[in-house]
Amino acid sequence: MKTVKDGGKKLSFLSIYFLGINAVIGSGAFLLLQVIYRDMNLMSVLVLLFAALTVSMVALCYADLASRFKESGAAWIYSYNAFGRFTGFELGIFIWFLGCCTLSAEVVALLTTLKSFLPVFNNPVVYYSSVFGLIILFAIINFFGRTLVKLVDNTSSAAKMITIIIFIVVGAFVIHFSHFKPVIPTAAANSFTGFFHHFGAAFSVVFYLFTGFSFLPIAAKQMNNPEKNIPRVLIAVMISVSILYSLMMLVAIGILGTRMSDYSTPIAIAFRDGVGTWGYFLVIVGMLISIFGVAFTASFNTPSLIASLANEHGMLPKVVGKKNRYNAPWISIILTAVVSLLLVTQSYLFLVSCIVLASFVQYVPTIFADIRFLHTNEFPTHGFKLPGKYIIPALALLISLYMVTNFTVKTIMVGVIVAVLAAIAYIFIEKDEEKEKERQAKLAQLRKKN
């Protein structure tokens, strides 16, 4: 790995791949599969594959844009260059909000998993002490830069992959093919309206399972050859995760059948029923490592996002992007921890809905940015070319807009509040920026006179 001027080391292709796996495969893979099954039964596997295909179209737009920029920031950088400062700022705040929601959701999921077999965590004092303590612990670790982050991330990714592969391979031998019925719930099969309702409910949940890919380009400056490696990793991660999710669902349904919807931790219960108690504890440990890994990755990526807002184009006061001697954006880390501490008091499902909303908000302008750059070729492609030119962005846009039909009023209100607060902050920041420019101009004039 190449040594950079600040004394740190860039992330290699393998490290970026593990970062992507950790960012995508998290609590949802272990805590939400029963929700998907409840809506679509065996056809939930097809919903998974369809969602994987559709989200991959959005990921390809990111891949195309990532090949055009070396800057950190991902979607907000793309929108800034395509549509101007205000759009970039709004999107940057939403992506930061998304990161805080992801960090909080994974921490809540971690404690939810612990509560399933350790009753002590049902005690509110123990529970909240633990969730707050984890957020603070992640912040402290991030103060010491990338080296420890890479170690934890690679370790948790490897452990997660091993657990999932063992579950799939061993579980395949204890499948009961009779459990693959019913194929689809009666309510979904009887009418188009019923099918649309069940499919939409399942698709929204599945959509969440793939949202983590968008965090990969956020720390582009900390990666080797980001314009080449990020597009390749995005594609590799989406293919890997799609295969793993589908096989996990098939094996779990094959073992549990209709009991799949009865458990909050269906993968662990399925392995217990299939191979015994050791299988249950193996999956539980894998779940904890997996969820911890995603939370840790979010705690690393999210401060990098808000720091990039301050450092790349001065969207926020420079102090926000200030770094310590380990090259860690310590002010951004503290801000992220504070917001996450507030969000972690909410329920897991509410945080999941907020994540899907924030993902939608960043996907739409990012896709439009990709269409614009494909048309103008303002930022030439380096190392990746989007096949079909406008076809994939157009399909990705239609799919993203479909998500609007699945948002609740409460979730939309959260989005409106975040957007309004961001707009107000933008007005004040821009006014302060203009005053500072005027002050500097007056000082320059005084120096000339003197």
**What best-fitting shape do the alpha-carbon axes yield?**
globular
Instruction: Determine the N-to-C terminus distance.
Output: 52 Å
Poorly predicted runs of 5 or more residues? 1-8
Give helix % range.
Answer: over 70%
| Sheet with most strands | none
Count of DSSP H/I helices = 17
The total count of strands amounts to 0
SSE succession:
HHHHHHHHHHHHHHHHH
Radius of gyration over all CA atoms, rounded: 22 Å
Let me know the average pLDDT. Answer: 83
The helix-and-strand class reads mainly alpha
Notes on the protein architecture:
With 450 residues, the chain is an all-alpha fold. The protein is 73% helix and 0% strand. The protein is built from 17 helices and no strands. The protein is globular, with a radius of gyration of 22 Å. The N and C termini lie far apart (52 Å). 51% of the residues are buried. Residues 1-8 have low confidence and may be disordered.
Summed up, what is this model?
With 450 residues, this protein is mostly helical. It has helices at 13-24, 27-31, 33-40, 44-66, 75-83, 85-115, 124-142, 146-171, 186-189, 192-209, 226-256, 266-275, 277-311, 330-343, 348-376, 391-402, 409-449.
Strand and helix map with partners:
Elements: H1 13-24, H2 27-31, H3 33-40, H4 44-66, H5 75-83, H6 85-115, H7 124-142, H8 146-171, H9 186-189, H10 192-209, H11 226-256, H12 266-275, H13 277-311, H14 330-343, H15 348-376, H16 391-402, H17 409-449
Helix pairs in contact: 1-8, 1-11, 1-13, 3-10, 4-10, 4-11, 4-15, 4-16, 5-6, 5-15, 6-7, 6-13, 6-14, 6-15, 6-17, 7-13, 7-14, 8-11, 8-13, 10-15, 11-12, 12-13, 13-14, 15-16, 15-17
